[in-house]
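Inverse folding, one chain.
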């Protein structure tokens, strides 16, 4: 888990930011920093929800981000009679 107030500073270099696209236009941000991977959380340690990719990126605008990705996992593999579930994640650079 990571908090924005700890990461959104000019002296912070984030190795990787992965913005997970969920259903109904909700995005969660996962950060790799200081050899730890975790989601951005609020003061109650609940994952922060963003309404756009841009909003997630802007939340860390003061930090340096080496790599940024948008990741989406398709639900189409859940169809009846389909093949066994495979990883059908789509990851694109942002």
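Residues assigned per position:
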């Amino acid at each position: 888990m990571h908090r924005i107030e700890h990461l959104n500073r000019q002296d912070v270099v984030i190795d990787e930011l992965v913005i997970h696209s969920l259903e109904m236009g909700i995005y969660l941000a996962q950060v790799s920093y200081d050899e730890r991977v975790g989601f951005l959380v609020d003061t109650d340690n609940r994952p922060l929800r963003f309404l756009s990719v841009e909003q997630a990126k802007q939340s860390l605008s003061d930090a340096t981000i080496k790599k940024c990705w948008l990741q989406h996992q398709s639900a189409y593999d859940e169809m009846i009679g389909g093949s066994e579930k495979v990883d059908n994640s789509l990851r694109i650079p942002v």
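The first strand starts at residue 2 and ends at 3. DSSP finds two helices and six strands in the chain.
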